[in-house]
Amino acid sequence: MKRRIDGGRLLDLTDGSLTGVSVLVDDASGRVLAVGTDLPEADERILLDGEVLLPGLIDVHVHLREPGFEDKETIATGTRAAAAGGFTQIACMPNTKPPIDTPDGVAYIRKRADEAGHCRVWPIACITQGQRGERLTDFAALKAAGAIALSDDGRGVQHGGLMREALAEAAKAGLPVAIHAEDETLSGQGVFDRGAAERLGVPESPAEAESAMIARDLLLAERTGAHLHICHVSTESAVSLVRWAKARGVRVTAEVTPHHLLLSDDVIEAADPVYKVNPPLRSERDRLACLEGFLDGTLDMVATDHAPHTEEEKRKPLLDAPFGLVGIETVFPLLYTYLVGAGRMSLAELVKRLSTRPAQAFGLTGGVLRPGGPADLVAVDLESERVIDPQQFYSKGRNTPFRGWRAAGFPTLTLCGGRVVHRIERGVPIGGR
Ligand SMILES: NC(=O)N[C@@H](CC(=O)O)C(=O)O
Ligand SMILES: [Zn+2]
Ligand SMILES: [Zn+2]
């Protein structure tokens, strides 16, 4: 079926200009057939009201929780949430039960994602069997089954020698290694960064636990020639290390989360698990260094690290509650409002960091909206504001520290392969109706 989307404004990622155009898509080929004015009639017409058309967003760090933790999220609910957030492609982390460490596990994720049909899902498989940090998985077989990267996310690979071997094997297999950098002998039972930990009298998870492992793995990536991707960079020292490594020509890409860009541990007023995330919210100095690194390109992209947990788990006492926040349904509006709206970066640059760059870094098709390309697109309503209300999430996870924040830029239409995967009405215009 062919669909014609009228009434939108296309963002030009090269110069940031907006042009009123129609877009003709076809869900049989999954392609954009034409972009322009006076396009031919289609089987279905979708009428927008001035929303801005962007290439579908891409999130390379999502926890879908299936198999094993379906009470937190399922592939169906997580991908539906992704579509609501404007995402047409996501990569999911393998810290499920069992962990995704075999070709069958990878095939299972792909099958369930196809059945759900809300967005494209790219499995990331374990670096080590069972994420135990002892023996490597079969990288070539995992790649053949469809894994696009390797990660033991949730835990760092503690043993440097094993990590060197992993990077050498990954370089041979042609797979990026996405690291959760955390030296557990330094983080221990820590929950918050130094400031909040001392203020509230709870165990500290120090910046060095992250930065020391990033330093190690940058050197090992240089040695092996592997593509190292650094997950959720949160410290000033880590930003400096990545900047240094890039200048030396190390094959490294890095992501930053919306919460590490927008929140520091100053917001933590009580021992509240809603702020418990790994790596922890850091000092304001770290936050500003991450923002600077993001603006200058040292940190290539935003990834949400969408990590849903049940309300029951998040109501536990701080030390018992799990680490993790949801983010996939709010990342675009939050960063649009608080970075673009605040004059820190252009809309086009934000879109590149949420679509074009992740596509390039992980070798995915997409990240641009053009005739002949995939009909993966999102229309965002930049003129209306909503108040973030977790009860309205499609995700099963409600654990967000952004409850009650106002933001504009919510998606009203998401198309994946030319099919409508999300559609809502515009919200309340800024300043009321
Ligand atoms: N980020 C988190 O705090 N939690 C993640 C694991 C991870 O990304 O390290 C989770 O799986 O819940
Ligand atoms: Zn992690
Ligand atoms: Zn994660």
Word description of this protein:
The chain has 433 residues and is α/β, with parallel strands linked by helices. It folds into two domains: 2-53 and 371-429, Urease, subunit C, domain 1 (Roll); 55-362, TIM Barrel (Alpha-Beta Barrel), CATH 3.20.20.140. It is built from 13 helices and 17 strands. The model has no long low-confidence stretch (mean pLDDT 98). Bound molecules: N-carbamoyl-L-aspartate and zinc ion (2 copies). The active site is at 305. Its EC number is 3.5.2.3. Belongs to the metallo-dependent hydrolases superfamily. DHOase family. Class I DHOase subfamily. It catalyses: (S)-dihydroorotate + H2O = N-carbamoyl-L-aspartate + H(+).
Briefly note the structural class of the backbone: alpha/beta
* Unreliable parts: none
Strand-residue proportion: 15-25%
Task: Report the bound ligands by name, code or SMILES.
Answer: N-carbamoyl-L-aspartate, zinc ion
Apparent shape: globular
The main sheet comes to: 9 strands, mixed
- Helical residue percent band: 25-40%
Number of domains: 2
Element order, helices and strands?
EEEEEEHEHEHEHEHHHEHEHHEHHHEEEE
Second-tier CATH architecture of the largest domain: Alpha-Beta Barrel
Contiguous helical run count:
13
CATH class of the largest domain: Alpha Beta
Distance between the termini: 36 Å
Count of beta strands: 17
Q: Report the mean per-residue pLDDT as an integer.
A: 98
Q: What would the CATH topology of the largest domain be?
A: TIM Barrel
